[in-house]
């Protein structure tokens, strides 16, 4: 069992509530049963997202991707066998977006159902073919960033073994394995609850249980048998149907009420069930009724605990400026400045701000990074022109509630010269002092392609303006009442199309007042080494802290997208070929490649800027390696 999984840690503290029926809700909203529900991930993502949000609002802590039938065999019935990966990735993306709009620590479950046709000898699908189909689906969900896998509604234990084997062979994420039982207490392939539970555990399931076909009353005895015969290390799950369906006109109606589900939720909890949810016929109302029972029945100390948000340290509560009287150019240093000026190695991690007004999970992730050893949090400014919470506000939340200093990216793309000055002064007033000046991505690439960019100044002008503020002057050189204390950073792009121009602009940024340099993500160490050599030949040695950007890649598809579609990012052919050849192991190769780049650059950089794209679990693997390698490098130079 994966003992470090946040999901399993939550289960050890207390039960979790899963969502209810996706198909039931889609049909209630006008989608006919004959339609391919999974295709809606592509054609109607907002519809799927709305259902996820309804279940989250009802109290679900786990939402399942709309991918139950997104395997090659079921999709082939709708002419969509070619779209397995696209549909699964879209399903995970929609669920992730729903979570981002929530302020709760929601887990994303990659949902996988049976193939829809029996395996040989009853059918034509060989076990090896079943394995390949499940592997294809699982890889797509894994690459899209699910937190766990939920295999459900299997009635043939051989097919379940194939699905479990496919998932377990590519990941150690938690797996929930649920089978469907008949009224006689056995699965269709003949096994009883005890055999099913034991077999699924041996095949790598972390949670086993029952879903679909049976209502709460009929399911209770099956679940009880599992609870009484399994080890304490195995968690049990129950997700019943809302009774048997009744046909009314052209619709199937389920008669089990939310109150009835609440009654059985208490009984399941008394048995020791740790994962409770609903299947066919259940709605957000059923989930809300069970949520109330869980809140009333589980003692506070037994509930799954959220990450603790510490109060801001006293040192971060107020930054007072005390420059020497005869030298107004010297500013009060930030924690980042102290680290770099004392030649300490710095690890900064990027966090994208929330996409709505809710920010609890954002702060929880920041706390996890703090506890994992990050020195600084980097917060982009609507990167890729995608609208998110104002990053100055997001930075203030982190510094106030998590106690970790931030670097705020600041672009004049969306602000005229008046607004630029106003916003940076406001940032300073709220304790935001580390600013990375960037020009910004064109708005035509983002959420509102018809929005206009302003750019009264570019990043060089922005640096000069903040340098003036540090001198107690405004952008026109007029004296102000007080000096600011910005620690000003600038960006460098060693893989720029015109390297000579980028070198020239870097020198202008330094002459305008930049104090440290952060690079775009580097995927080949030689790119940065060559860039620095050319800089030295033109302008002399770079005499300020250099922080290298690192972005772990998790798939060949991601590398191709970044290389071909994202301005400023160049991923060499040999790196993309290596990821392609790695296949299902691409995520592992991406981490190894990141480590190799750092090994080559460790002697010449004073920090790293890790861009995990919300895959924060990578930090716990990369950060110890980076620190140990940097320490070894430092010893070798003594």
Q: Explain this structure to me?
A:
The protein has 638 residues and is α/β, with parallel strands linked by helices. It has 2 domains: 13-302, TIM Barrel; 345-466 and 487-637, TIM Barrel. 44% of the residues lie in helices and 13% in strands. The chain is built from 24 helices and 18 strands. Strands 1-10-7-6-5-4-3-2 form an 8-stranded parallel β-sheet. Strands 11-12-13-14-15-16-17-18 form an 8-stranded parallel barrel, surrounded by 6 helices. Helix 8 links the parallel strand 4 and strand 5. The radius of gyration is 27 Å and the shape is elongated. The model is unreliable at 301-331 (pLDDT under 50).
Please supply descriptive tags for the structure shown above.
638 residues; TIM Barrel; alpha/beta; 8-stranded parallel sheet; 2 domains; elongated
Radius of gyration: 27 Å
Give the strand order of the largest sheet, numbering strands 1, 2, ... along the chain. Answer: 1-10-7-6-5-4-3-2
Strand content: 5-15%
Instruction: Describe the main β-sheet briefly.
Output: 8 strands, parallel
What is the mean pLDDT? 87
Q: Please count the helical segments.
A: 24
Task: Compose a concise summary of this entry.
The chain has 638 residues and is an alpha/beta fold.
Write the layout of secondary structure elements.
Blueprint (H helix, E strand, L loop, with lengths): L5 H8 L2 E2 L4 H7 L11 H4 L1 H14 L3 E3 L7 H5 L7 H17 L6 E6 L14 H17 L4 E7 L2 H12 L6 E5 L13 H10 L4 E5 L4 H14 L5 E5 L5 E4 L2 E4 L3 H14 L3 E2 L7 H14 L16 H4 L17 H7 L4 E5 L9 H13 L3 E4 L11 H11 L4 E5 L6 H13 L4 E4 L21 H12 L16 E6 L6 H14 L3 E6 L3 H15 L6 E5 L5 H10 L7 H10 L3 H16 L5 E4 L8 H19 L1
Parallel strand pairs: 1-10, 2-3, 3-4, 4-5, 5-6, 6-7, 7-10, 11-12, 11-18, 12-13, 13-14, 14-15, 15-16, 16-17, 17-18
Antiparallel strand pairs: 8-9
EC number: 1.5.1.20, 2.1.1.10
Organism: Ktedonosporobacter rubrisoli
GO molecular function: metal ion binding; methionine synthase activity; methylenetetrahydrofolate reductase [NAD(P)H] activity
């Amino acid at each position: 069992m994966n003992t470090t999984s946040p999901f399993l840690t939550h289960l050890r503290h207390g039960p979790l509530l899963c969502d209810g029926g996706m198909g039931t809700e889609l049909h209630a909203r006008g989608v006919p049963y004959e339609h391919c529900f999974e295709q809606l991930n592509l054609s109607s993502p907002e519809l799927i997202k709305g259902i996820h949000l309804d279940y989250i609002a009802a109290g679900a802590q786990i939402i399942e991707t709309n991918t139950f039938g997104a395997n090659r065999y079921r999709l082939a019935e709708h002419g969509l066998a070619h779209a397995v990966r696209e549909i699964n990735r879209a399903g995970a993306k929609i669920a992730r977006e729903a979570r981002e709009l929530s302020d709760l620590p929601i887990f994303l479950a990659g949902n996988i159902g049976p193939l829809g046709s029996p395996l040989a000898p009853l059918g034509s699908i060989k076990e090896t073919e079943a394995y390949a189909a499940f592997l294809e689906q699982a890889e797509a969900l894994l690459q899209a960033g699910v937190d766990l896998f939920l295999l459900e509604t299997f009635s043939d234990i051989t097919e379940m073994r194939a699905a479990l084997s496919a998932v377990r062979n590519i990941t150690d994420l938690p797996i929930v394995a649920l089978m469907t039982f008949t009224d006689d207490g056995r699965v269709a392939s003949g096994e009883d609850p005890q055999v099913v539970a034991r077999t699924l555990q041996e095949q790598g399931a972390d949670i086993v249980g029952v879903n679909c076909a049976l209502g709460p009353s009929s399911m209770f005895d099956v679940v009880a048998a599992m609870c009484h015969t399994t080890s304490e290390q195995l968690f049990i799950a129950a997700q019943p149907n809302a009774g048997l369906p009744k046909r009314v006109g052209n619709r199937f109606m389920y008669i089990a009420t939310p109150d009835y589900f609440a009654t059985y939720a208490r009984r399941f909890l008394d048995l020791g069930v740790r994962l409770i949810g609903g299947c066919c016929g259940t709605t957000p109302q059923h989930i809300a009724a069970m949520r109330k029972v869980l809140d009333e029945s589980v003692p506070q100390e037994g509930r799954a605990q959220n990450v603790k948000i510490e109060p801001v340290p006293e040192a971060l509560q107020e930054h007072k400026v005390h420059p020497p009287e005869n030298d107004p150019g010297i500013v009060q240093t930030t924690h980042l400045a102290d680290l770099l000026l004392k030649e300490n190695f710095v690890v900064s991690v990027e966090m994208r701000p929330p996409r709505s007004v809710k920010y609890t999970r954002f702060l929880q992730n920041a706390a996890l990074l703090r506890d994992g050893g990050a020195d600084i949090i980097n917060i982009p400014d609507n990167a890729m022109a995608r609208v998110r919470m104002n990053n100055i506000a997001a930075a203030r939340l982190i510094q106030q509630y998590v106690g970790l200093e931030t670097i705020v990216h600041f672009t004049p793309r969306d602000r005229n010269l008046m607004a630029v000055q106003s916003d940076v002064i406001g940032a300073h007033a709220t304790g935001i002092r580390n600013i990375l000046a960037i020009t910004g991505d064109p708005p035509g690439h983002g959420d509102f392609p018809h929005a206009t960019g302003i750019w009264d100044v570019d990043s060089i002008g922005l640096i000069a303006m903040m340098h003036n503020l540090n001198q107690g002057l405004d952008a026109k050189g007029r004296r102000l009442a007080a000096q600011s204390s910005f620690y000003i950073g600038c960006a460098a792009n060693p893989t720029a199309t015109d390297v000579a121009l980028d070198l020239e602009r870097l020198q202008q940024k330094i002459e305008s007042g930049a104090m440290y340099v952060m690079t775009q993500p580097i995927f080949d160490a030689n790119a940065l080494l060559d860039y620095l050599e050319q800089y030295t030949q033109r302008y002399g040695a770079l005499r300020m802290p250099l922080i290298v950007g690192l972005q772990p890649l998790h798939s060949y598809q991601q590398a191709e997208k970044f290389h071909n579609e994202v301005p400023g990012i160049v991923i060499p052919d040999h790196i993309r070929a290596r990821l392609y050849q790695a296949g299902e192991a691409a995520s592992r190769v991406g981490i190894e490649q990141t480590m190799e780049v750092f090994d080559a650059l460790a002697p010449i950089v004073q920090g790293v800027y890790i861009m995990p794209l919300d895959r924060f679990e990578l930090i716990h693997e990369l950060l110890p390696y980076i620190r140990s390698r940097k320490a070894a490098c430092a010893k070798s130079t003594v």
